[in-house]
């Protein structure tokens, strides 16, 4: 049976992908700052949805996706080829560690990721979901250290993370010379405690720009801010 998520400008085939199109990916794709980026890397691209959203938002960019799972990588490649942005999208099936270590001299203006983020938790029995959802502290150290080596002079790294993981990632980033430049707290409702943060890391150290975004204004009612953010992407708006 087909498993297609239809956006306004492209479709995302999700067949065989452990991580389906979800709110985290949509928020990262819609909120990441990249208007001055000519080269973007999407680490752990999965279905390719974040890369596709960035290609739609920024028509002068080229987006590389890297994905370790062969089936997900093949699906993302298909989604890229079937999109209106296929000439500005490319896919490599590899771990990000191998990809970046083998890309000496290659730099990016923006590196994004909706990474595995369940640290020190019970592993999922499904191996594909385990790869997609779980990581350890070494994963984030390697992600930051290798990405830092491939940033252009004003390049940035943008991640969406749970708050507890974000605190650890921000501390690790500072250790290697990357600083928190902006943060967007994601809340279910205006009165809720934030459950995710979109963080932007880069150099130099600057005053941190902080914002909030509530997904809903009431039960089953999307907020005006969320609707406005995703009106060019989701068919429900």
Task: Describe the protein.
With 237 residues, this protein is α/β, with parallel strands linked by helices. It has one domain (4-172): Vaccinia Virus protein VP39 (Rossmann fold, 3-Layer(aba) Sandwich), CATH 3.40.50. It is built from 8 helices and 14 strands. It has helices spanning 23-31, 49-57, 70-81, 96-101, 127-133, 137-149, 163-176, 224-230, and strands at 4-6, 11-13, 39-43, 62-67, 89-93, 108-113, 118-119, 134-135, 151-161, 179-187, 196-202, 209-214, 216-218, 221-222. α6 (137-149) packs across α7 (163-176).
Return the average pLDDT rounded to an integer.
Answer: 91
Strand order of the largest sheet: 5-4-3-6-9-11-10-12
Query: Which secondary-structure class do the elements indicate?
Result: alpha/beta
Question: Rg, please?
Answer: 17 Å
CATH superfamily: Vaccinia Virus protein VP39
- From the structure provided, what is the oligomeric state, counting identical versus distinct chains? single chain
Secondary structure: helix percent: 25-40%
Short account of what is shown:
The protein has helices at residues 23-31, 49-57, 70-81, 96-101, 127-133, 137-149, 163-176, 224-230, and strands spanning 4-6, 11-13, 39-43, 62-67, 89-93, 108-113, 118-119, 134-135, 151-161, 179-187, 196-202, 209-214, 216-218, 221-222.
């Amino acid at each position: 049976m087909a498993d297609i998520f239809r956006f306004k400008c492209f479709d995302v085939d999700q067949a065989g992908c452990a991580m389906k199109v979800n709110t985290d990916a949509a928020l990262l794709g819609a909120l990441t700052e990249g208007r001055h980026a000519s080269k973007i890397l999407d680490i752990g691209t999965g279905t390719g949805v974040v890369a596709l959203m960035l290609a739609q938002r920024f028509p002068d960019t080229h987006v590389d996706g890297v994905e370790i799972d062969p089936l997900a990588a093949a699906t993302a490649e298909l989604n890229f080829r079937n999109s209106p942005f296929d000439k500005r999208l490319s896919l490599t099936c590899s771990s990000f560690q191998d990809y970046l270590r083998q890309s000496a001299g290659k730099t990016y203006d923006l590196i994004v990721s909706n990474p595995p983020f369940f640290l020190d938790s019970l592993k999922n029995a499904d191996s594909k979901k385990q790869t997609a959802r779980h990581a350890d502290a070494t994963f984030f150290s390697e992600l930051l250290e290798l990405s830092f080596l491939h940033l252009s002079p004003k390049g940035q790294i943008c991640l969406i993370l749970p708050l507890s993981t974000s605190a650890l990632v921000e501390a690790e980033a500072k250790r290697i010379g990357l600083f928190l430049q902006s943060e967007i707290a994601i809340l279910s409702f205006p009165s809720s405690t934030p459950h995710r943060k979109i963080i932007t890391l880069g150099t130099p150290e600057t005053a941190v720009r902080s914002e909030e975004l509530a997904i809903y204004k009431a039960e089953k009612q999307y907020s005006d801010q969320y609707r406005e953010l995703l009106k060019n992407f989701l068919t429900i708006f």
